[in-house]
Amino acid sequence: MAPASSEFILPRTGRVLRNRTVLAAMTNKQSEEDGTLSDAEIAWLVRRAEGGFGIVTTAATHVHPGGKSWEGEMGVWGDHHVPRLTELADGIREHGATSLAQIFHGGLRAPRSLTGQQPTSASINLERGVEEESRELSDSEVSDLVASFGEAAERCERAGFDGVEVHGAHGYLVCQFLGTRTNRRADRWGGDLEGRSSFLREVMREVRSRTSEGFLLAVRISPVHEVGIELSESIELSGMICDWGADILHISCWDAFAEAGEGDQRTLTKAFREAIPEGFPLLSTGSIWTEGDAEFVLGEGADLVGVARAGIAHPDWANCLGGGGYEPERAPFTPEHLLDAGLSPVFVDYMRRWKGFVTDGRK
Ligand SMILES: Cc1cc2nc3c(=O)[nH]c(=O)nc-3n(C[C@H](O)[C@H](O)[C@H](O)COP(=O)(O)O)c2cc1C
């Protein structure tokens, strides 16, 4: 098995990734009110490119002003975003990493207090913690949103990004279309798996049609999710995503060491590996902290390994691999440690919401 520090060639484009590590998408609440990237957000990502990651992914970034889910969220819905997106893409490239912008729409989780409009979703939905019920998107509104994803991807390419990752995981709009609980539509966007995945399929088609041959298209999914996504269907969906021309299938496992569930004792990585065509690039993320963890997940059949929290605390995580025994310090971290790692005070404060990550006292 090739180690995490070895290069990987994406088969469709022939693009060479310098190693098999990916900085997974991480929201950090540092963008300006209108979605424009701030200096701090650019600096934190460029620092991870400098730290050796093969791919650096941006935070989830909304493709339409109505899809904004939280304050300080990055946007790619307007041409005013392009100059700073270009700075970020240039910075990542200068340090030898491949860049992906994670494009998304919050759907029912995009509150009126941020967007000025009632949240929209596949169906009328309400979940704990949201301000109000979403309304169901009309057929033409769904098509308009498909176009917004395509326009956003086109904008990212213009800014110099190497590709986009469509965020189909974690309960946001694409995921809401996929879920049986959040998508109860009777039209072409709902029904069986084929219908519920048609929004994702059309988004992928639109991204492809508006970007060049060499532009990368990754798709991130949740293997299971409370919106009504079950493992068996996700596995079926993964094959469809490969057929629809993705370059990378990204599974968000949260715990890449756990059993897949539904009686399946394989890890999620192995279950998906065995379901998708041989050689199709599989990226797996969730609770990878040490070099040994990364090698385990590659051994289960992933081609690429994603890290989030380890990459926050250890900007040079990817550069430290290669010897086999890299075991970086674990959380909790002091604010000083995180500031030294290139986080701004705003980001450090946000990380206090992640249980056990930040400590003000002695460890
Ligand atoms: C601060 C923070 C922000 C996150 N934001 C996003 C996001 O914008 N999009 C996304 O798909 N996942 C997001 N995630 C999930 C991570 O990409 C990753 O899947 C998860 O943290 C598990 O990986 P880890 O154990 O290496 O942290 C976020 C995670 C963290 C810690």
List the helices and strands and how they pair.
Layout: E1 8-10, E2 15-17, E3 21-23, H1 39-50, E4 55-62, E5 74-75, H2 82-94, E6 98-104, H3 112-115, E7 120-121, E8 135-136, H4 139-158, E9 163-168, H5 173-178, H6 193-196, H7 198-210, E10 216-221, H8 231-243, E11 248-252, E12 259-261, E13 264-267, H9 268-273, E14 282-285, H10 291-299, E15 304-307, H11 309-313, H12 335-340, H13 345-351
Parallel strand pairs: 3-4, 3-15, 4-5, 4-6, 6-9, 7-8, 9-10, 10-11, 11-14, 14-15
Antiparallel strand pairs: 1-2, 12-13
Helix pairs in contact: 1-2, 4-7
Flavin mononucleotide binds near residues 24, 60, 167 and 308.
Low-confidence stretches: none
**Count of separate structural domains:** 1
Distance between termini? 37 Å
Binned strand content = 15-25%
Mean pLDDT: 97
> Might you state the CATH topology name?
TIM Barrel
Write down the secondary-structure element order: EEEHEEHEHEEHEHHHEHEEEHEHEHHH
Spatial order of strands in the largest sheet: 3-4-6-9-10-11-14-15
H/I helix tally: 13
| Gross CATH architecture | Alpha-Beta Barrel
CATH class: Alpha Beta
Q: How many extended strands?
A: 15
Structural class: alpha/beta
Tell me roughly what share of residues is in helical segments. Answer: 25-40%
Radius of gyration: 19 Å
Shape: globular
**CATH superfamily placement:** Aldolase class I
Ligand kinds: flavin mononucleotide
Main beta sheet, described?
8 strands, parallel, barrel
